[in-house]
Amino acid sequence: MVDLKERTFNYAVNVRRFVKSLKSDRLNQDDFVQLIRSSGSVGANFIEAIESLSKKDFLYRLKICLKGAKESRYWLKIVEKTSNSVPNEEISILIQESKELIRIFSSIIHKHQK
After folding, report:
1. What CATH number should be reported for the domain holding residue 107?
2. Mean pLDDT of the chain
3. Which residues of 17-45 are buried (b: 16+ CB within 10 A; e: fewer)?
4. 21 within some domain
């Protein structure tokens, strides 16, 4: 099984590859930038969480991971509805991965807040 650090890294890479495969125009360019930033934030903040010095900082970073995963899902859905050349299977896989990351981070946060 792939560990979560590698999984979040792969998620950001796959989002970038996906965006690179799409036609970019003035209308969707900002959406693509937001999607790339939010997907990268998930993994970057997970690394920060792993290296945190306190439980409070750990939970804070995980909440940012959760926020990034939710934001990525939002932008993926926008791209899905507004781009003409979106491969349905590919975007479905990315949306599903964002949902799974949301569940994972929510579960970890809930477990550590007790």
Report:
1. 1.20.1440.60
2. 93
3. ebbeebeeeeebeebbebbbebbbbbbbb
4. no
Q: Which of 82, 83, 79, 109 is nearest to 94 (CA)?
A: 79
**CA 94 to CA 102: how far, in whole Å?**
12
Cβ neighbours for 76, distance < 8 A, ≥ 6 positions apart: 15, 35, 91, 94, 95, 98
Q: What length does the chain have?
A: 114
User: What predicted TM-score, i.e. pTM, was given to this entire model?
Assistant: 0.92
Which structural domain range is residue 71 located in? Answer: 4-16+26-112
Q: What is the pLDDT of residues 35-75, one digit of tens each?
A: 999 999 999 999 999 999 999 999 999 999 999 999 999 99
